[in-house]
Amino acid sequence: MIEKTYQPSAVEGRIYARWEEAQAFRSARPERLAARPYCIVIPPPNVTGSLHMGHALNNTLQDVLARFERMRGRDVLWQPGTDHAGIATQMVVERQLMERQEPNRRVLGRAKFLEKVWAWKAQSGGAITTQLKRLGASCDWSRERFTMDEGLSRAVLKVFVELHRAGLIYKDKRLVNWDPKLLTAISDLEVQQVEINGHLWHIRYPLEGAPFDPADPSTFITVATTRPETMLGDVAVAVHPDDERYRHLVGKQAILPLVGRRIPIIADAYSDPEKGTGAVKITPAHDFNDFEVWQRHKDDELKGYRPINIFDQEAHLLLSPNPDFRSNVDEALILQIDQTIADLNGEDRFAARKRIVAALERSSQIAKIEAHTHTVPHGDRSAVVIEPYLTDQWYVDAKTLAQPAMAAVRSGRTVFVPRNWETTYFSWMENIQPWCISRQLWWGHQIPAWYGPTKDDVDYNYANWQPFVAESEAQAQAQAAAHYGLPAHIEKNEKAAADYGASHAGALDSVPLWRDEDVLDTWFSSALWPFSTLGWPEQTKELARYYPTDALVTGFDIIFFWVARMMMMGLQFMEEVPFRTVYIHALVRDERGAKMSKSKGNVIDPLALIDEYGADALRFTLAAMAAQGRDIKLSNQRVESSRNFATKLWNACRFAEMNGCVAVAGFDPACATATLNRWIGHETARAVREITEAIEAYRFNEAAGAAYRFVWNVFCDWYLELAKPVLQGADGPSKQETRAMTAWARDQILRLLHPFTPFVTEELWHLTASAQARTTLLALADWPRPEGLDDIESEAEIGWVVDLVTAVRSLRAEMNIAPAVAMPVVLVAAAPATRARAQRWEDTIRALARISHIAVAPSAPRGAVALIVRGEAVALPLSGVIDFAAEKARLEKEMARVDSDIARIDAKLGNGDFLRRAPEEVVEGEREKREEATARRAKIIEALDRLKGAA
Predict the structure, then answer these.
(1) How far apart are alpha carbons 896 and 884 in whole angstroms?
(2) SS3 of residue 4 by DSSP
(3) What pLDDT is attached to residue 499?
(4) Which residues is 83 bridged to in the sheet?
């Protein structure tokens, strides 16, 4: 028996346990071995993560697809798993050690620290998996993977070694995003651009051969910079080739203030004549754009001028060579610092900035200082300013791997939905740079490279030792033995050079090797996710059956970081695209359209919404708002509305149960005789088509909208309402058929809604089982496939009743006619079929539309408002019911108010200053207000036109 109210908290855990007990989500179920496979790989959330609204949207949409295809009979594998999240996880464990006052990782050493990380992962790393189950995710949890588990680690090693062997992985000295707090390179995705109120310093660089005179502009060139501290690493000054102010200086040399180094003045289009002074300092070791300028000129004007790294790993000034630092300043480029700042070595970069500026002011080389608002990169976890840093790292030749990945999308082997994201994909891929894959961390896949001394390494500088890349230490030792003609042995990294140096003077009987301490970028293992999770490099039956996968659902922000790299790796190692379709969903914002952030205090917690409204309410809201290319503006009220929808379904099923509506074995809805029952069959078939086609096209909002309209409007508001007299009347064949039809339509609704609202539908599926118990869980039931139910005649009849009642109700509301006022409806020159319908349904129409009676006339009576219902005129006599003059005055007053609102909004939207300064969500809110006001205006015009027609 169905209880009076639905309580999600009392149902959802029990339902999920039932699914797991039945292994409902297992792939390769025995009865589906001959079925077509369908595979989605979950974007692996961080093992440190907690469910946020982005996860909720992403996994809801994936689950809609998985449940939909499972009900269509496919052998579904929704592959779950988590990402080891290198930086995030290491930070969590380091923070835990600090809080417990235990030795830090440096004291513990690598091996013991990693034991601590694995222990944390075993104890706390599964929280997000539990939270995904609360959302209703129907993953095959028996196949859950982790990017550091044994199988995936083996895949990572093999890929690294094979790409290195092919020349597609190499070591190079390039600029990276360096986090001076975490002491590691980080990806662009881990960098946040923060707007700050800073300064623009205008610095006079003396020209060679002219005595510097701050009062004589011919003796210097003025450079504008936001980072005066990096000037110590300048190698040039750049001006635009078309800038007439500086054309005569190109090819000459400037003298670097405080340092005395001669640097050339070069022409390069990077310099913008409209910004600052039009002359920019070129510091290739500390600015990405400057590095590109240096690359363009290094063989010409800047030949012999190599990048100079003036910082150590903690962003302290490094003004003298340091043999222990991987990016040493070259002996030939040792800075000859002016004595006034000679003691800056080891100074923090921001403290050094103040001292350098002070020194420049003392020497009259500061022309002016301007207030300047600009964006500065910060680490998203450390919150410190990120330093562009020149260092040795491992790289992937992404440009080579990108070519087949672009060709696959151009040829349609992989399709983006919406298609406009393909433009973004190509833009990134066509301008792709080498991919930095090394990270200076301990938690992650350690790079499989071992180093031995070069044959001419008389200084025992182990930073320059010979690398041996292999899948195991034994293989690396074998490579080293072949290289040196001697056995090799593994040493602890910190002792390797010393051990080698101590024994180098005598005869060697073996060569020491030490392993690269760096780990791989987390995105490297994630790039292998679609095939490594299926068992590669082993040729497993799962790999053969489920690769390539069918669809990937992800956010636009990781198209480059993840989607593109999966495309590259899939094509390189599987010779096939990893997925046929990439669905890109939008952002979930707050109700005003603002991006959620902790600093704004507008973060909506999906788990809190699940606690309050139930998982189904959250899921249905997200699906219903997931229009392609449009961000979601989420509010508690929207989720509450979806909870009300679940309640409506629950009450409808309870009403059906109370009226004896039980599924009848062998019942064929196509054999129904009653017009109303044939109509609900017709509408059900139409809803099935609409929902099916929308899900197939990834139009989740349209699918959810069609389901909502069918359930709430068609089934609950109209079919059950119109069926009440039969269901509550005398027994007989008509009642028997209507009961069976109601139960059949209810079951189709439960199936249609299941991908969106799995918990309440599964519970109702169980509760509405007849004496002949359900043979399967709803999660494994068939998707509706109604045939032979299209019925134009029944739709014409019941549709006319629905449209007539709806039109009359709308007019009553529009004209402020009190519910107690009954008035006639006049069918004007109605066709015989329409008159017959009116006669059959008059009692129902009178009750639902609150009219006195239905009349037929050749023309509309005077003082009547005309409506058009399915192409025929219907008149409502309103003389004596409303005051036409007063109603007209009311509507005109409302029109004036709406026009004023539109004018005010147009003034705002036409104000360029407002558009520039106002937050995006405020501007979008004004546009929405205008749309609402315009729609209201159209309704007022329609109402005024009706009054004119009635006068």
Answers:
(1) 18
(2) coil
(3) 52
(4) 46
584 pLDDT tier (thresholds 50, 70, 90): very high
- pLDDT tens string 801-850: 999 999 999 888 888 888 888 889 989 888 999 999 999 999 999 999 99
Q: Give the C-alpha separation, 772 to 663, whole Å.
A: 9
- The answer to whether the CB of 265 falls within 8 A of the CB of 221 is yes
Secondary structure, 3-state, 452-500: ECCCCCCCCCHHHCEEEECCCHHHHHHHHHHHHCCCEEECCHHHHHHHH
Residue given tokens 């010393």 in the structure block: 498
Residues near 633 by beta carbon (within 8 Å), at least 6 away in sequence: 589, 590, 591, 592, 593, 625
- Quick check: 92 and 116 in contact, CB under 8 A? no
Task: Assign residue 378 a region (left: φ > 0; alpha: ψ between -120 and 50; beta: otherwise).
Answer: beta
DSSP string, 231-279: GGG--EEEE-TT-TTTGGGTT-EEE-TTT--EEEEEE-TTS-TTSTTSE
Greatest CA separation found in the chain?
A: 120
Q: What is the pLDDT of residue 951?
A: 55
Angle between helices 792-814 and 832-849 (to 10 degrees): 50
Task: Give the SS3 label for residue 6.
Answer: coil
Q: Which spans in 614-732 are helix H?
A: 615-624, 636-658, 675-696, 700-708, 721-727
Mean pLDDT calculated for residue range 265-294: 95
Contact 61, 53 (CB under 8 A): no
The DSSP symbol for 324 reads T
Q: Are strands 872-877 and 823-828 parallel, antiparallel or unpaired?
A: antiparallel
Question: Amino acid letter at 60?
Answer: T
Rounded Cα gap, residues 238 and 240, in angstroms: 7
Per-residue HEC secondary structure of 516-581 comes to: CCCEECHHHHHCCHHHHCCCCCCCCHHHHHHCCEEEEEEEHHHHHHHHHHHHHHHHHHCCCCCEEE
Give dist(CA 410, CA 612) in Å, integer: 46
**Cis before 725 (ω within 30):** no
Q: Which two tokens stand for residue 240?
A: 């635009």
**Residues composing the chain:** 951
Strand pairing report for 184-186 and 236-239:
unpaired
Distance of alpha carbon 652 from alpha carbon 43, whole angstroms: 37
Q: What is the pLDDT of residue 589?
A: 87
The strand pairing partners of 177, in sequence order, are 186, 388
CA distances from 267 to 221, 252, 253, 256, 444 (A): 14, 11, 12, 18, 44
Token pair listed for 628? 């392609």
Q: How confident is the model at residue 29 (pLDDT cuts 50, 70, 90)?
A: very high
The SS3 assignment for 585 reads strand
Query: What is the residue-wise DSSP string for 43-85?
Result: -PPBTT----HHHHHHHHHHHHHHHHHHHTT-EEEEE-EEB--
Give the C-alpha distances (Å, rounded to integers) separating 761 from 754, 767, 947. 6, 10, 47
pLDDT of residue 336: 44
Q: What is the pLDDT of residue 463?
A: 57
Pairing, β 851-857 against β 823-828: parallel
CA distance 614 to 535: 36
Task: Please write down the HEC assignment for all residues of 770-809.
Answer: CCCCCCCCHHHCCCCCCCCCCCHHHHHHHHHHHHHHHHHH
Q: In what order do the strands lie in the sheet with 169-179?
A: 184-186, 169-179, 387-396, 435-436
Cβ–Cβ contacts within 10 Å for residue 475, how many? 15
Mean pLDDT of the chain: 90
Quote the DSSP letter at residue 42.
-
Rounded alpha-carbon distances, angstroms, from residue 208 to 249, 254, 256, 391: 11, 5, 10, 32
Confidence at 320, pLDDT banded by 50, 70, 90: low
Using alpha carbons, select from 431, 433, 437 the residue that is nearest to residue 528.
Answer: 437
pLDDT tens, 869-891? 898 888 888 877 776 666 676 67
